[in-house]
C-alpha cells in the first residue's frame, strides 16, 4: 500500500489567514466577492430592454451594483427610462437620489410614473449642472456611506440617478462665458472622466447602482468615407456591425448602425471647391495643435466655424 506523502512544513496554508484577510478588507474597504451570490437587477419597465441588459425578461434589468448609462439622441425616452427605474426601485425598498442637470424634471413627471416623492428621507431631487460640484457631492456622500457600512449599516438600498451627463458644464466653461470668451473648454471632459473614475469603485463596494443618461449626436451624412483599421476606406452608410474603424482613441469596433431620416444638415464649401455635408455638431480640427480630446479648443463644431478657420485635412 502506498504511503501518503507528509505535507511539507514549509507549505503555506492560505485558509489560516482568512480572518486576517477579512479584517484587512474591512479596514481598507476592499470587497471580498462572493462568487456564489446571485446578481440582482432592477427592471427598466421595458421587458425587451431588460432582456438585452441581463438576458432575463422576467427578472432582469439594470444590475444593482454597477453603473448603467443610457445614451441616445435627444427626445428618445432616456428620462422615461430613469423615471421607470426609479419607480421599480422604490417597489424594492430603494431610496432615490435623483440629480437633474437639465432643470427639466418636475413633480408631475414623478407622479405620472408612480414615483413617490412625499418622504424626503427616501427621495431627494437635486439640481445642479456643474460637474465639479456633483463630483464633490457624490464623493463626500459615498465616503459617508462607506463609514456607515463599516459600522455594520446596510446602505445598499440606495440608487443614484444622474440625468444627464450631456448637460454638465465645468466651472471654467461658465467663467469663460461670463467673460465673453467663446473658446472651447478643455476641462469639462476631463472633469467628467474624473467623476466616474473616482466613484465607480465606491459604488461597487457599497453595492449601489448609478443610472445616468447621455446625449449622442448625429455627425456625418451618407456619402462620406470612413477609414477602417486596415487602412482601407468605406462609405459610412455601408459600415456594419463588427467593422473596425479608426478613431481619435485608437481602433474601435462598430457595435450598431442606425439610420436617421430627419436631422439638420450643414453644407460647408472649402476654398478648393470641395463640399462637406454634416450635422451642426460634427467636430473639425482647426488648429495645428493636435489633441484627441474633442473638448479641446483646437476643435470646433460645424455650427461654430467661420470663414477664417482653416480645417486640417488628412489625406488617404
Description:
With 316 residues, this protein is α/β, with parallel strands linked by helices. The protein is 27% helix and 19% strand. The chain contains seven helices and 15 strands. The chain has helices at 18-28, 47-54, 78-91, 107-112, 131-150, 171-178, 188-206, and strands at residues 41-42, 62-63, 67-72, 95-100, 123-127, 158-163, 210-215, 225-227, 233-235, 244-247, 250-253, 266-269, 275-278, 283-285, 299-301. It has a five-stranded parallel sheet, covered by helices on one side. The longest helix is centred in the middle third of the chain and has 20 residues, at 131-150. The chain is globular. The N and C termini lie far apart (76 Å).
Task: Give a quick summary of the entry.
With 316 residues, this protein is α/β, with parallel strands linked by helices.
Q: Can you tell me the residue ranges where pLDDT is under 50 for at least 5 consecutive residues? A: none
Please state the structural category.
alpha/beta
Oligomer: single chain
Q: Report the span from N to C terminus.
A: 76 Å
What are the main properties of this structure?
globular; two-stranded antiparallel sheet; 15 strands; 316 residues; alpha/beta
SSE layout:
Blueprint lengths: L17 H11 L12 E2 L4 H8 L7 E2 L3 E6 L5 H14 L3 E6 L6 H6 L10 E5 L3 H20 L7 E6 L7 H8 L9 H19 L3 E6 L9 E3 L5 E3 L8 E4 L2 E4 L12 E4 L5 E4 L4 E3 L13 E3 L15
Parallel strand pairs: 3-7, 4-5, 4-6, 6-7
Antiparallel strand pairs: 1-2, 8-9, 10-11, 12-13, 14-15
Amino acid at each position: 500500500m502506498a504511503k501518503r506523502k507528509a505535507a511539507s512544513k514549509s507549505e503555506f496554508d492560505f485558509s489560516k489567514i482568512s480572518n486576517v484577510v477579512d479584517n484587512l478588507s474591512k479596514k481598507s474597504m476592499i470587497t471580498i466577492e462572493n462568487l456564489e451570490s446571485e446578481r440582482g437587477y432592477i427592471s427598466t419597465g421595458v421587458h425587451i430592454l431588460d432582456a438585452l441588459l441581463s438576458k432575463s425578461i422576467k427578472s432582469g434589468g439594470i444590475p444593482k451594483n454597477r453603473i448603467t448609462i443610457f445614451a441616445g439622441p435627444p427626445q428618445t425616452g432616456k428620462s422615461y427610462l430613469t423615471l421607470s427605474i426609479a419607480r421599480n426601485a422604490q417597489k424594492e425598498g430603494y431610496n432615490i437620489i435623483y440629480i437633474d442637470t437639465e432643470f427639466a424634471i418636475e413633480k408631475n413627471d414623478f407622479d405620472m410614473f408612480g414615483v413617490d416623492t412625499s418622504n424626503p428621507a427616501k427621495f431627494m431631487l437635486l439640481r445642479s449642472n456643474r460637474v465639479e460640484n456633483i463630483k464633490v457631492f457624490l464623493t463626500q456622500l459615498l465616503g459617508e456611506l462607506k463609514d456607515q457600512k463599516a459600522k455594520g449599516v446596510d446602505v445598499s438600498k440606495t440608487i443614484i440617478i444622474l440625468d444627464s451627463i450631456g448637460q454638465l458644464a465645468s466651472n471654467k466653461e461658465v467663467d469663460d462665458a461670463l467673460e465673453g470668451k467663446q473658446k472651447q473648454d478643455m476641462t469639462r471632459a476631463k472633469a467628467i472622466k474624473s467623476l466616474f473614475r473616482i466613484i465607480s469603485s465606491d459604488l461597487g463596494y457599497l453595492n449601489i447602482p448609478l443610472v445616468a443618461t447621455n446625449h449622442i449626436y448625429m455627425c456625418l451624412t451618407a456619402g462620406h468615407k470612413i477609414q477602417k483599421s486596415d487602412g482601407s476606406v468605406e462609405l459610412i452608410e455601408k459600415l456594419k456591425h463588427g467593422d473596425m474603424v479608426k478613431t481619435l482613441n485608437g481602433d474601435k469596433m462598430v457595435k450598431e448602425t442606425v439610420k436617421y431620416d430627419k436631422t439638420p444638415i450643414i453644407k460647408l464649401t472649402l476654398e478648393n471647391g470641395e463640399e462637406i455635408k454634416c450635422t451642426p455638431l460634427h467636430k473639425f480640427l482647426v488648429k495645428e495643435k493636435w489633441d484627441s480630446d474633442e473638448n479641446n479648443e483646437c476643435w470646433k463644431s460645424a455650427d461654430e466655424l467661420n470663414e477664417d478657420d482653416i480645417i486640417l485635412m488628412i489625406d488617404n
